[in-house]
Design goal:
Blueprint: H1 2-32, E1 35-37, E2 41-43, E3 48-53, E4 58-63, E5 68-73, E6 78-80, E7 83-85, E8 92-98, E9 102-111, E10 116-118, E11 122-127, E12 151-158, E13 168-175, H2 178-212
Parallel strand pairs: 2-11
Antiparallel strand pairs: 1-3, 3-8, 4-7, 4-9, 5-8, 6-7, 9-10, 9-11, 12-13
Length: 213
């Protein structure tokens, strides 16, 4: 009888312990879920937030595309060579400001003590806020340089959406054209001399005819 009573007492205790273990495990798994939110669109020079949800994060890293600057970061992270790092181990909220238009992709990794994991890639498109951006007046393309080692060079300038509406310089190179130009000049001189001689000849004949009349 005593053994039966002990078994009856132990069963509820075991059940309670198992229930507590399951609840704790569920809570741990829930707190371990990690995700991040980045808007799909933002306006040029307008702030937006990158939010990371999760707990027990170890050294999260974010690859920040060119054309973004950090405005506010309470975790006091650092960014080197476009890699943002922080020692913060809980939810993160970082404010960025885009300085270029286009479509960009944010990437990130983190660890929870069981290996390195990757955030899902997030793509954001930066647009203008209804303000039309136009190119400035670019410098005039340079003249071809003198021949150096049978080559000529010059700088040309272009501006478009592809250059973020900034005048960019491009160096062009070609084979020297001096020989061709000299040849053309000699041919022109020869033609002019021939025409002059023909003109003088006919003028001479005309003068003679007038004289013999």
């Amino acid at each position: 009888m005593a053994n039966s009573r002990r078994m009856l007492i132990k069963k509820p205790i075991i059940f309670v312990l198992i229930t507590i273990i399951l609840i704790v495990s569920t809570l741990q798994l829930t707190s371990a879920i990690v995700d991040w939110i980045i808007p799909s669109e933002a306006e040029l020079n307008s702030n937006f937030d990158v939010k990371i949800f999760g707990d027990k994060l170890y050294f999260p890293e974010i690859t920040v595309p060119n054309g973004f600057e950090i405005v506010l970061d309470k975790s006091n992270g650092i960014i080197t060579n476009n890699i943002y790092r922080t020692y913060y181990t809980s939810n993160l909220d970082i404010t960025f400001r885009p300085t270029s238009i286009g479509t960009f992709t944010f990437k990130g990794v983190y660890s929870q003590g069981d290996g390195v994991k990757s955030f899902s890639d997030k793509t954001i498109t930066i647009k203008t806020s209804g303000i039309e951006i136009t190119c400035p007046v670019c410098p005039i393309n340079e003249e071809w340089s003198e021949c150096i080692l049978e080559k000529q060079k010059r700088n040309t300038y272009s501006c478009s959406e592809l250059t973020d509406f900034i005048c960019e310089s491009t160096e062009e190179e070609r084979e020297c054209q001096q020989d061709v130009s000299i040849k053309d000049k000699l041919e022109d001189k020869t033609k002019n001399r021939f025409i002059t001689k023909i003109t003088d000849f006919f003028k001479y004949i005309w003068d003679k005819l007038i004289f013999w009349r």
